[in-house]
Design a protein that fits this description.
Helices cover 20% and strands 31% of the residues. It is α+β, with helices and mostly antiparallel strands. The protein has a single domain (50-254), classed as Alpha carbonic anhydrase (Carbonic Anhydrase II). The structure holds zinc ion. The site of zinc ion has 4 residues, from strand 8.
């Protein structure tokens, strides 16, 4: 006769195996995509059914900015404040999480700032030309879940950009390193003075490539020192998805 005790042990063992498999599967899902080789952008859509839009979508990002229609568009209202921040390396980029409270208002909708992160080279190109870096400020509409991402191109200038020092002096070199605490940031100081912009409806530039993003790409770059750019590209160089077809979408430029 089978001992109930062994049967319980066997059940527990099965349970541990199942949980381990689930955990490994979750990790694999998260870590499987990348920017080169057989997990690179051209294969994202085939890696998982959840990533199908990366291959089949019709409103994908980034795009090459050219031949935009010039219109007098509404301003992006930035309600950025001082914020503590945590800086971490998520295996795909360096991401900075900020305190709740900062937001933009665009076309009457408030989008809360969640985080910002970087791509090298830039993901959006202007007349085919990339910039050395692009920063993405990711905001979310609490009601719809839709995102508004403000993109800024970062170019090499003469001197250190002090507003960014709190981030670039604390870049975690390796994925999974404990997050770093930067000095409190004045988020508004990270923006250029002139805030006219290009806009189009697009997607996340990483899997699952969800088509839920109002893109707001400022048309004036911000300058960083070459050493600041080098500090990032020493860690990530090539974490940019290639540009995607504009297709039937409108690409607008603010005339301001
Ligand atoms: Zn991004």
């Amino acid at each position: 006769m089978k001992s109930p005790r062994y049967s319980n042990l066997f059940g527990m063992l099965l349970c541990v195996i199942a949980l381990t498999a689930l955990l490994l599967n979750t990790l694999a899902d998260d870590l499987h995509w990348g920017y080169s080789g057989d997990a690179g952008p051209e294969y994202w859509g085939a890696l998982s059914p959840d990533y199908a839009l990366c291959a089949d979508g019709s409103a994908q990002s980034p795009i090459d900015i050219r031949d935009a229609s010039v219109l007098d568009l509404v301003d992006i209202e930035f309600r950025y404040s001082e914020s503590a921040n945590t800086i971490f390396n998520n295996g795909h980029t360096i991401q900075v999480n900020v305190d709740p409270g900062s937001a933009i208002v665009y076309n009457g909708i408030r989008y809360d700032l969640l985080q910002f992160h970087f791509h090298a080279p830039s993901e959006h190109t202007i007349d085919g030309m990339p910039a050395p870096l692009e920063i993405h400020f990711v905001h979310q509409d609490a009601n719809s879940g839709n995102l508004a991402v403000v993109g800024i191109l970062l170019t090499a200038g003469e001197s250190d950009n002090a507003a960014y020092a709190g981030v670039f002096d604390h870049l975690p070199a390796h994925a999974g390193e404990p997050e770093a605490k930067g000095e409190p940031l004045s988020l508004a100081a990270l923006l250029p003075q002139a805030r006219s912009y290009y806009t189009y409806q697009g997607s996340l530039t990483t899997p699952p490539c969800s088509e839920i993003v109002r893109w707001l790409l400022l048309d004036k770059p911000v300058e960083l020192a070459a050493q600041q750019i080098a500090a990032f590209t020493a860690i990530y160089d090539g974490n940019a998805r290639p540009t995607q077809p504009l297709g039937a979408r409108d690409l607008l430029q603010d005339s301001a």
